[in-house]
Amino acid sequence: MARTSRLSTSVLLTCAAIGVATGVLQAAAGAISAPVSAALPILYGLVLGVHVLPGVIAQELLRRPGVAIITHLVAALVASAVVPLWIGRYIGTALLIGGLQELIAAISRYRRWEPWRFYLSAVIVGGVIAVAIWFAADVERFPLWGQIIYVALFVVGPVLWTAVGLAIGAGLRRAGVARRDRA
């Protein structure tokens, strides 16, 4: 007897569709990140927060193990097709954020899908990114109030984009995109 896959073809195709759409958004965010960093660097965290979208939409819609990381990797490949030079950044970000989203869902054994769980994930992702950016960027160039806002927006960005992702996922669910697989 053939072994059945844990993820059906329809689930994988749904992950791919979400990944393509969010990968285009990530490429757009990558395109504006340099001008934003140069003109209004304090807002960079809001732009970078878009990277949580693939996993949030996939998990909210499909509520299954593995969908966040798969969708993030597809999004990274799409964004990398637009900016091949950044493939390492996009894949690394996909593994980091998708992995954190999967880990938080796995802690609850993929049984808790309330909004608070997604927001907790967003705060953790934002915190990890804020720490990394603190060491990578020259944050000391800002006055103290600017440093606080700069770092805080790296947490607020993923939280705001999580709200967008939850709304999109819920809308897709209401539209019937997440039909149950037939045996």
From TrEMBL:
<feature type="transmembrane region" description="Helical">
    <location>
        <begin position="118"/>
        <end position="136"/>
    </location>
</feature>
<protein>
    <submittedName>
        <fullName>ECF transporter S component</fullName>
    </submittedName>
</protein>
<feature type="transmembrane region" description="Helical">
    <location>
        <begin position="37"/>
        <end position="57"/>
    </location>
</feature>
<keyword id="KW-1133">Transmembrane helix</keyword>
<keyword id="KW-0812">Transmembrane</keyword>
<feature type="transmembrane region" description="Helical">
    <location>
        <begin position="148"/>
        <end position="172"/>
    </location>
</feature>
<dbReference type="InterPro" id="IPR017195">
    <property type="entry name" value="ABC_thiamin-permease_prd"/>
</dbReference>
<feature type="transmembrane region" description="Helical">
    <location>
        <begin position="69"/>
        <end position="87"/>
    </location>
</feature>
<dbReference type="Pfam" id="PF09819">
    <property type="entry name" value="ABC_cobalt"/>
</dbReference>
<feature type="transmembrane region" description="Helical">
    <location>
        <begin position="93"/>
        <end position="111"/>
    </location>
</feature>
<keyword id="KW-0472">Membrane</keyword>
